[in-house]
Design a protein that fits this description.
Protein name: Putative lipid II flippase MurJ
Helix content: over 70%
Strand order of the largest sheet: 1-4
Radius of gyration: 26 Å
Structural class: mainly alpha
Pfam families: MurJ (PF03023)
Largest sheet: 2 strands, antiparallel
Subcellular location: Cell membrane
Main location: membrane
Strand content: under 5%
Keywords: Cell membrane, Cell shape, Membrane, Peptidoglycan synthesis, Transmembrane, Transmembrane helix
């Protein structure tokens, strides 16, 4: 999260220069209403009054008014509706790709859970350095620096191609040098930060895993640049589905570990990190068709004089700092998690560091499922549109697009959070409880899931607000807010990690990710004026009411089904039936209610889905 800035005064002056034409000429729909409705009523009343005195004049006025409306208002309304439909369709396509990726991600975690905490703990610990370094070097720049800059070059394909592959080649060189260097630093890093609470065998395994995983950056780095190039050109299909390859590779590695074990000189236990390598290569391969569609064949070039490079670096400097800062917080979180005490149900264990870290990792994936499906999809779909409105100085349509994203996000994320909380144990047992994953670990993971779930609605708003600041070429404010929100994490984590333990760390993360969007929203309101948030309130109240009924139904069904042996959570079938019956009926009731309440965004989503299925 976070970013850079063009001078705020320049942005505001640019906006003011357009106040007299573009904004005024385009009626903007906010919260289901039209901001020009009062003016329209006045025109109608005046025309009616005149009609009583002069019928011919009235007819002429009506004719003129009709022509003006046809020529100005109708095309503007049509353009807005078309843009809204396109935005929802783009978000739906990204969400569809993320759905496939997330389903594979859940399967991946299920396979990893089967290996037990002795393997999964070291594996999850080993992933952090590569992921954080990739975020710091390139992945964090995708929404804040790369997509807005690439979008400016979308009409000049050759210049864009030269820029993209300059960055690809530069990133590849950096990742190669870094991977070799990390190989020698890894022992100290593992013992000091990654796994200080692990036993000697688990520390050794973490060291071996992290050395292998770090070389996946040779593919992960270029993938981030190519993904940004395709998103900037609104090529959402291949980019959305490519991430699934990463999960598929790890699943193959987990199956190899489960089948081979420590046979063949112990090579079987290296299946998971080798699966990461396979998955990252697969990601690159799946982007090739999309690159061909956009005429972006590979070229060996290092054009350090390209004018966009300096812009990217300027935009990304604050983002890089934010990722460095957040990586430090993440490593602190991991450092604490590996040393957290056992909760009551795990008292028979001598050490719970590996189980606690694994529980947080499994719960994180479940949170990322709706997060990727809704929040990330919306933010990536909205960013190019917000950037265009900002470039044109159309501030009202900028706000309208942002509010649409808010309503769509809340429509899906509020019930998702509630559903994960109320059905946490059946979901965890269904997905993970097999092999060496015990019922006690299922309870531990469900506790982490509940404490992570509180942040879900705020994550949707947060991602959209970050996109709004990125569209304004401002990446400094989200960084500064990140630093402030981390104090919320520290205020909960540091006093309670050694007493309450792992649940306190999960809740601290929710506090941090709740504070971030609230502060950003206040700053954006102070910067560009009213966001017309009252337009969200009616839809929000309807969503909350429908969610409350959904929770009551899910909770009641879960209690009732628990008395039937067929629905016992001690079996896979029982867990599956509980989730399907209780979760399915509750979800159906939620959507029936929001449709009955006439929440506008439901019909928009339905239209987007039907269009993608070829039925509309």
């Amino acid at each position: 999260m976070a970013k850079d800035s063009i001078n705020n005064e320049e942005i505001l002056s640019s906006e003011n220069n357009h106040d007299d034409d573009a904004v005024e000429a385009v009626p903007t729909v906010l919260g289901g209403g039209n901001i020009d409705s009062e003016a329209a009523v006045e025109i109608i009343e005046t025309t009616t009054a005149k009609a009583k005195d002069d019928t011919s004049v009235s007819s002429t006025a009506e004719s003129a008014s009709s022509e003006v409306q046809e020529e100005v208002v109708a095309p503007a309304d049509s353009a807005i509706r078309s843009e809204r439909r396109e935005l929802v369709k783009s978000a739906s396509l990204v969400a569809l790709g993320n759905l496939g990726s997330s389903v594979l991600g859940m399967l991946r975690q299920s396979f990893i859970a089967y290996t037990g905490p002795g393997i999964s703990g070291p594996f999850f610990a080993s992933l952090s350095p590569a992921q954080k370094f990739n975020d710091f070097i390139v992945n964090g720049s995708v929404p804040g620096a790369l997509i807005p800059t690439f979008n400016d070059y979308a009409e000049n394909k050759e210049a864009l191609r030269r820029l993209v592959f300059t960055l690809v080649n530069l990133v590849l060189i950096i990742m190669t040098i870094s991977s070799v260097g990390y190989f020698f630093v890894a022992p100290w890093f593992t013992n000091t930060i990654l796994a200080p609470g692990f036993n000697p065998q688990e520390k050794l395994l973490t060291l071996q895993f992290t050395r292998i995983v770090f070389f996946s950056l040779l593919a992960l780095g270029p993938f981030a640049v190519l993904q940004a190039a395709l998103y900037a050109q609104k090529e959402f299909g291949w980019t959305a589905f490519a991430a699934a390859a990463y999960h598929a590779g790890i699943i193959v590695g987990a199956i190899f570990t489960g089948m081979v074990g420590k046979q063949f000189f112990g090579l079987g236990q290296y299946g998971l990190p080798l699966g990461v390598i396979i998955g990252t290569v697969g990601e690159i391969l799946l982007l090739i068709p999309g690159m061909r569609n956009q005429g972006m064949r590979y070229m060996f070039v290092l054009d350090f004089n390209h004018p966009a490079l300096r812009r990217i670096l300027k935009l990304y400097a604050p983002i890089a700092f934010s990722f460095f800062f957040s990586a430090c917080v993440a490593f602190l979180d991991q450092f604490l998690a590996t040393q957290t005490p056992c909760i009551e149900i795990m008292r028979q264990q001598k050490s719970c560091g590996d189980a606690n870290l694994s529980a947080m990792a499994f719960a994180t994936l479940l949170i990322q499922f709706p997060g990727g499906l809704v929040a990330s999809a919306l933010s990536f779909a909205v960013l190019p549109t917000l950037t265009t409105h900002m470039r044109e100085g159309d501030l009202e349509r900028f706000k309208s697009t942002l509010l649409l994203g808010f309503r769509l996000g809340l429509l899906l994320m509020i019930p998702a959070a509630a559903g994960l909380i109320v059905l946490k144990l059946p979901i965890v047992t269904l997905l993970f409880q097999r092999g060496k994953f015990s019922p006690a670990q299922a309870v531990l993971t469900s506790m982490a899931l509940q404490n992570f779930s509180y942040q879900l609605p705020f994550i949707a708003i947060d991602q959209l607000l970050i996109s709004a600041f990125y569209a304004r070429k401002n990446t400094i404010i989200p960084v500064a807010v990140l630093v402030l929100s981390v104090f919320g994490y520290l205020a909960v984590a540091l006093p309670f990690w050694h007493t309450i333990g792992m649940p306190a760390l999960a809740f601290a993360n929710s506090v941090q990710n709740t504070l971030h969007p609230l502060i950003l929203l206040l700053i954006l309101w102070k910067t560009i004026g009213s966001l017309h948030l009252r337009g969200v309130v009616p839809a929000l109240l309807k969503i909350l009411l429908a969610t409350a009924v959904m929770v009551a139904v899910a909770w009641g069904l879960q209690l009732a089904l628990a008395h039937i042996h067929l629905f016992s959570l001690s079996t896979f079938i029982g867990s599956a039936l509980t989730v399907i019956v209780a979760g399915g009926i509750a979800a159906a009731i939620y959507f029936i209610l929001v449709i009955a309440f006439k929440v506008e965004e439901v019909s928009m989503l339905k239209g987007a889905v039907l269009a993608k299925l070829g039925k509309k």
